Fold this protein.
Amino acid sequence: MTRLGPGDAFPSLTVTLPAGELLELPGALAGRYGVVLLFRGAWCPYCNAQLRAFGRAHERLSELGVDIVALSVDDEVTTRALIEKHALPFPVGFGADAVAGATGAFVNDDPRYLQSTGFVLDPDGRVIVSVYSSGAIGRLVPDDVAGLVRYVREHAEVAS
């Protein structure tokens, strides 16, 4: 299992959203910066806190040109309830069992879930930063994403 690092192309993934909609990554984020959050499940208090934080920061991040997608191994009913509970304004996928192999995310086997993993992608779908956690803590936060995107933009302008 290979972990993704800076400069790596984010793998093509099809994310299933509630109501059967499909979202293709990284294509759905093309032309904007992207945050892809793999979370443990609706049962995880740390994941709930992270999702709420990104929900609160959604508008500010969107103004910076950042889109967010989250996914877990939860089922559709659980995912729909989580979205409603936190009024999440970004796509949240479910049944993401297969993404560990493509992204290098750590997996807990019994019960089966993905450990928290986060990626910030550039507008071309390449990884700028990856954050892998092997347990409950250690994850992306909105302020760090905003600061990173500002930094990357400023330095890209200077280099031009």
The first strand starts at residue 13 and ends at 16.
